[in-house]
Specification:
The protein has 11 helices and 12 strands. With 311 residues, it is of the alpha/beta class. It folds into 2 domains: 234 residues, Rossmann fold (3-Layer(aba) Sandwich); 69 residues. Strand 1 and strand 2 form a beta hairpin. Helix 2 crosses helix 3. It is globular. It starts with a strand and ends with a helix. The mean pLDDT is 95.
Length: 311
Amino acid sequence: MQTREVLIPGGAVTLAGTLSLPQGAGPFPTCLLVHGTGPLDRDENMPGQSLDIFNRIAEHLAGHGVAALRYDKRGCGKSTGDYYRSGHHDLVDDAIHAVDFLAMQPECDPDRIFALGHSEGTVIVPQLSAQRPSLRGMVLLCPFMERVEAILKAQARHMEEAIVGLRQPRRAIMRLLLGGGRSIPAAQQRLIARLKSSDAPCMRIAFQKVAAKSLRELMALEPEALFRAARCPMLAISGAKDLQCAPEDAQRIAAVAQVPVEAHCVPDLTHLLRRTGGKHTFFEYGKLMKGPVDAEVLALISGWIERQLQV
């Protein structure tokens, strides 16, 4: 694999990224990688969280003849801007600028550009395709169909279940850190109410800095409508042990879409794209990050892209 550091002009911000290229002569089919939620760099890492997802996907795709562009979110890594004062629609604009950048690169075929989204990125790429209809296809990793407010409440219930299973004093400490002393569902409901009643771009809640504008814009989205309006083929991969996005949503997307959708729910797969046996909780994330991205997920991505290129 060859790599080239790039700067992507985007109006008020400049995004820094890495273009990964297969060996040989191009132009190559290319895949844009679009992050999940959080102040993430081009590999989906941030302080205290080393997922190393996008670098692994880019490496895998290069081995299958597909170039990949991954970039630091605005205000993260080497990109300019302010992540916490940005909105979800700013992130959509950034993805549009990244696609336009790819279309001008001599190593990339502008007629064979795909977009891959993880988590929040799965609702960014359909909006991207609406603005750039030449997009060849979309890959959705851990997609969701529910409104974000419902997802936030479900995540809070999962976290509460995990905390109840802890021994004291760790249970009390985690409840204080994550809920300000309240139950996690109660704290999450308070967060949602504060978000709705404010127009501040950034807030501090329970010791955490929150990108409030981005969350409000996410809560206003109707994911089902985005997938119904999609006009290019999709690969949707859910995890049977995903605590953040419902495992059945890949199949639900396939049921409402008006385009071909290949849907999978991978056994034991978590939101981190790693597998785990037994009961899974959020407190397992630290251990899971040390493992590799699931090989079946990588094979599903490259295999589907290869099949789309044959159409």
